[in-house]
Each structure stands twice: as structure tokens, then as C-alpha cells.
Amino acid sequence: MRNYxxxxxxxxxxxxxxxxxxxQKVSSWIQENNGQIERVEQWGKRKLAxxxxxxxxxxxxxxxxxxxxVFVPQLERNLRYLEQVMRFLITLQ
Length: 93
Hints:
There is one protein chain. This protein is of the alpha+beta class. 28% of the residues lie in helices and 51% in strands. The chain is built from 2 helices and 4 strands; from the N terminus they run βαββαβ. The protein has helices spanning 16-32, 72-80; strands at 2-10, 36-52, 55-67, 85-92. Strand 2 and strand 3 form a beta hairpin. The longest helix has 17 residues, at 16-32. The protein is globular, with a radius of gyration of 13 Å. The model has no long low-confidence stretch (mean pLDDT 95).
């Protein structure tokens, strides 16, 4: 298991319950594949440096995780297909 940081920007039109459902969905993917979530920080709605999908704001979420390295490509693929996630980045800690 390696330690990773997952940062994603969710669509700004999501309300608080929809954002929590999105975070729960990502968390369940991680836990189903023997990963551990160490910390979840919601940074709130912030202005983007440049427009993404014609949006100028987004909900920022930072997650610190411990994952098996073989699961990272699958997590990236799952995040890519979520319409609520505008951008994401997974990095080693």
C-alpha cells in the first residue's frame, strides 16, 4: 500500500448532499479495493484559474488515501467517467 493524495474539482451546481454523495461514492470505490481513507477535506466552492466546461467555479475536495498501486488506473478511469467531476489529480505523497 502506498500513500496518495486525490484532489478533484466537482461541478459547482452540486448542492451539499449531492457533493457528499459523490464523496461517498469515491470513498466506497477505494474501500472496496482494500484502500484506506485517512482524511477528507472539503475546501468549498472556489474560483478556477481558467474555465473548465464553461464553468468558472468548482467544489474542491482533497482526500489522503492508502491504496494498492494496481488500483490507481482503475480509480482514474472511474473518475474520468463521472460527469460531476470536472478535473482530478492523483499524486504520491
